[in-house]
């Protein structure tokens, strides 16, 4: 492990808090140190209050902030004098502690202080860093981890036996650390939890963390417990997208809500899932107890979701009577599945949650295997992990509840998604919490958004093999399909029937009609498995009820698509699939309305381009956003009782009316 400190970068930060931000971000850059909000840092600063009196203030990482991206606003300023008094109490409940921390901040709009704030306060150093370093945990999570930590660090660190995070940990450290520290002390190891470093400057504290973790890495290397290499031969039989979608549905039924199920069949994941001893080493518990909130205590090995749920209920029944307060059972669905064909499967209420689960468990697999090489992986007891999973503070979050976006946990596929109505549909669906797969013949679709809940796939929808490949990618990424938006289409230049060549006619039919037939046929088995029922919305055209001259191929293709949707509504209603059609008109911010086509159509009607754009009863310009918002709403609860509808989005057209 190498220090990332850079004098040039550091010179941009001129205050203690600024340097605290800088080194926090350095820690956050290395995922072997902290992941997704893990770890915390602090700095003690003397400040003058409004009355002109100086106070010792602890600036500690605020709840919800990630070290990789933290800013000064992410640190909560808490009065040191009160924190030190709290540390002397014999008992302090979590809810009392949270209240005391919040009511003794110097900024009302600051984030809630870390639950380890009191621990940071009692450590007699200006800067304090805390990480969950993989290398250190790989050593502590073994049968003789304590002795190995002593072997690595000697008297340079104080070792603290595992204590649940929060006030109890601070109280134990206040006694044990302050008694055992010496002039040589440069760190503190919390067994099965993490490591602390500290110093008089931000650079000193940060670089001591790097040095301490590097010692653990070197130790693992010397004991041939560092490199975790997959075997030469791995079974790579590809699972069908239908089987993955069925697995997602089973998990959603146990979770009682739609979920994102993401498959990671890389070499590392397959190697771990295919280990002969995976049923033993993966069932010891998570690497650190704070991971349980994301991954649950154990992964499911195989695909028997019902058996996993029963085992989880038994675990809750066995451990909950020991809780100091009554606790409400969380849903018993797995968050991690280890499968010989699928590798690592991560599950979350959203795509971001599923990605966090995957990130955490990828590190967990390395930690477990390194611990095995060092003598055998040994996690905390089920009771210790249960205590964190059902922590008073976590249970309080459940009671608060709060609304979530309408399509959370659901997956949508949009064709023609790189621009116009398609891109607007992507935006509307993302806004409502869906994970979205966008297809487009334009390769720019792949970089349309860089976010965990979007996958862009270059796809010619007239190519059946390309559609199959795109659906495979969609199901691998998110687990299934709930919503299908059929938007891709072409609008050829105006041409009267007597001049319409067969090739143009066939091309329009192939893209506007036949491609949608293939998509519907291939998506049907997935939509049938949608936890809340499948939904299909086709983007038709005003030309269906009111065709115009010189648009025979386009009008006929959209009319045939509309008829196809009507038949689908009849056939699929028994499978809880709703099928509806929107008929927009004169939506000019789309790919089919090139300047040439726009000028041609305006000229045909004897109008200027601006007059043509608002040539409707309401005299409004219809945009892609208007169409997309209605398409998204038709997939939501407001239209739960609607199928086979044809809805105009045209500002009012007298010919249609």
Automatic annotation (TrEMBL):
Residue ranges occupied by any Class II aldolase/adducin N-terminal domain in the UniProt entry: 19-220
Matches recorded under PROSITE patterns: ADH_SHORT (PS00061)
Keywords: Oxidoreductase
InterPro entries on file: Aldolase_II/adducin_N, Aldolase_II/adducin_N_sf, NAD(P)-bd_dom_sf, Sc_DH/Rdtase_CS, SDR_fam
GO molecular function terms listed in the Swiss-Prot or TrEMBL record: oxidoreductase activity
Gene3D superfamilies attached to this UniProt entry: Class II aldolase/adducin N-terminal domain, NAD(P)-binding Rossmann-like Domain
Pfam families the UniProt entry points to: adh_short, Aldolase_II
Family the entry assigns: Belongs to the short-chain dehydrogenases/reductases (SDR) family.
Protein name: Bifunctional aldolase/short-chain dehydrogenase
Species of the source: Pseudanabaena cinerea FACHB-1277
């Amino acid at each position: 492990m190498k220090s990332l400190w850079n004098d040039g970068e550091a010179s941009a930060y001129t205050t203690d808090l600024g340097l605290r931000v800088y080194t926090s971000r350095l820690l956050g850059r290395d995922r072997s140190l902290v992941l997704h909000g893990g770890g915390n840092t602090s700095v003690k600063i003397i400040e003058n209050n409004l009355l002109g009196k100086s106070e010792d203030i602890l600036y500690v990482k605020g709840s919800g902030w990630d070290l990789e991206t933290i800013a000064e606003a992410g640190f909560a300023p808490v009065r040191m004098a009160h924190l030190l008094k709290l540390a002397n109490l014999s008992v302090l409940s979590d809810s009392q502690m949270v209240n005391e921390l919040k009511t003794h901040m110097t900024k009302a709009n600051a984030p809630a202080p870390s639950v380890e704030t009191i621990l940071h306060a009692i450590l007699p150093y200006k800067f304090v860093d805390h990480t969950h370093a993989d290398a250190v945990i790989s050593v502590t999570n073994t049968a003789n981890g304590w002795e190995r930590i002593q072997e690595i660090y000697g008297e340079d660190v104080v070792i603290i036996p595992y204590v649940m995070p929060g006030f109890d940990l601070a109280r134990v450290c206040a006694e044990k650390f302050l008694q055992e520290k010496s002039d040589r002390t440069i760190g503190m190891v919390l067994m099965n939890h993490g490591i602390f470093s500290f110093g008089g400057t931000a650079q000193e504290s940060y670089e001591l963390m790097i040095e301490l973790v590097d010692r653990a890495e070197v130790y693992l290397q010397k004991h041939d417990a560092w490199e975790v290499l997959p075997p030469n031969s791995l079974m790579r039989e590809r699972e069908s997208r239908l089987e993955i979608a069925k697995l997602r549905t089973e998990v959603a039924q146990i979770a009682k809500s739609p979920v994102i199920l993401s498959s990671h069949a890389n070499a590392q994941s397959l190697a771990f899932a295919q280990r002969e001893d995976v049923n033993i080493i993966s069932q010891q518990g998570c690497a650190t107890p704070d991971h349980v909130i994301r991954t649950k205590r154990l992964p499911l090995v195989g695909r028997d979701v019902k058996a996993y749920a029963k085992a989880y209920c038994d675990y809750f029944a066995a451990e909950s009577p020991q809780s100091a307060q009554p606790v409400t059972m969380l849903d018993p669905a797995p968050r991690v599945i280890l499968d010989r064909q699928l590798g690592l499967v991560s599950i979350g209420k959203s795509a971001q949650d599923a990605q966090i689960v995957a990130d955490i468990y990828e590190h967990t697999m390395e930690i477990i295997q390194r611990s095995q090489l060092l003598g055998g992986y040994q996690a905390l007891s089920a009771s210790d992990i249960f205590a964190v999973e059902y922590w008073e503070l976590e249970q309080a979050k459940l009671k608060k509840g709060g609304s979530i976006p309408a399509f959370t946990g659901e997956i949508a596929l949009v064709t023609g998604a790189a621009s116009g109505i398609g891109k607007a549909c992507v935006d509307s669906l993302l806004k409502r919490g869906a994970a979205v797969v966008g297809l487009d013949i334009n390769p720019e679709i792949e970089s349309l958004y860089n976010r965990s809940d979007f996958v862009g796939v270059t796809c010619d929808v007239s190519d059946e093999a390309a559609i199959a490949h795109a659906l495979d990618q969609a199901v691998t990424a998110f687990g299934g399909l709930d919503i299908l938006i059929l938007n891709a289409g072409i609008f050829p230049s105006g041409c009267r029937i007597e001049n319409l060549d067969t090739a143009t006619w066939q091309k329009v039919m192939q893209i506007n009609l036949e491609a949608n037939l293939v998509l519907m046929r291939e998506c049907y088995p997935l939509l049938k498995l949608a936890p809340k029922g499948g939904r299909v919305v086709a983007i038709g055209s005003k030309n269906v009820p009111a065709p115009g001259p010189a648009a025979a191929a386009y009008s006929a293709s959209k009319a045939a698509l509309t008829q196809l949707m009507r038949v689908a509504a009849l056939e699929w209603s028994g499978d809880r699939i709703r099928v509806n059609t929107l008929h927009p008109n004169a939506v000019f911010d789309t790919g089919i309305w090139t300047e040439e086509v726009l000028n041609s159509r305006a000229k045909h009607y004897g109008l200027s381009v601006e007059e043509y754009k608002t040539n409707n009863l309401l005299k409004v310009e219809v945009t892609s956003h208007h169409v997309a918002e209605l398409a998204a709403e038709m997939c939501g609860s407001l239209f739960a009782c609607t199928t086979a509808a044809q809805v105009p989005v045209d500002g009012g057209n007298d010919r249609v009316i």
